[in-house]
């Protein structure tokens, strides 16, 4: 390492620690980072993909986009405007996003205000209070998705009923798919040190059918608790106009902008993405939102009824590749 680096070790730590707090499917954290002067590359980590549940790599791209958004937020706090390039080098296909840092000035308005939410935000898998999500918050979440080139569709009562039917089919398939179960057992349950979802973050089992994803289904612990979940959850589907790897990365940017904004309203969020992991069911969800855009994520949102543990993250040093 030279003595004239653009970023100090402390600044790199701030940036990559923020990136590590991004959500990813099964908390696999499928990223690593290379840094050269004012450029940070977000790369796919092939050893952290999920071939059974995510064969096309769509959710991997979403996770990489979310990590890139957190990099932008931390960079804004440090005073750097940022620009992005998606899959910038055909010769190096592992590079999903290239983040360019501008000259440092003062904390960048807007993005820097979200930094305090980076460590607070986590996936909440417990029941929500019956308190509705205020219209202002819904509008802000919708605007956050639009700011990143995506759309957020809030489901009405009929659409939630249809989604519940689709989720039931997906849940049934999940518990009978040996490849998916085996893959989940690698990442879900037990005590987790730096990745995956530990028992303490799974949330309780639902005592009745509910709009919640039970990652422990199929290999659950007998001593796990149960709870009654909300009857009318607030659910939004995040969509993109295009359907390719660039759109998936953009969906990840939009997702994290939405999630950090939700956290700023003290809202809890979790995912119902099992309905998007099967092509025929994803098409049914697409019809729910008008059949003109592609559903990338399904977000359950509300005020948490209980506290819950965070899933662990790897130390930033473990995600750093080359640094010049």
UniProtKB/TrEMBL annotation:
Highest taxon of the source?
Bacteria
Cross-referenced Pfam families, in alphabetical order?
A: Nitroreductase
Which SUPFAM superfamilies would you find in this protein's record?
A: FMN-dependent nitroreductase-like (SSF55469)
Where do transmembrane segments lie in this chain? none
GO MF terms listed in the record are:
oxidoreductase activity
Q: Where is the Nitroreductase domain?
A: 120-303
What the entry lists under Gene3D superfamilies is as follows: NADH Oxidase
Q: Which PANTHER family match?
A: NAD(P)H NITROREDUCTASE RV3131-RELATED, NADPH NITROREDUCTASE
Per its record, how is this protein called by name?
A: Nitroreductase
Species of origin: Kribbella shirazensis
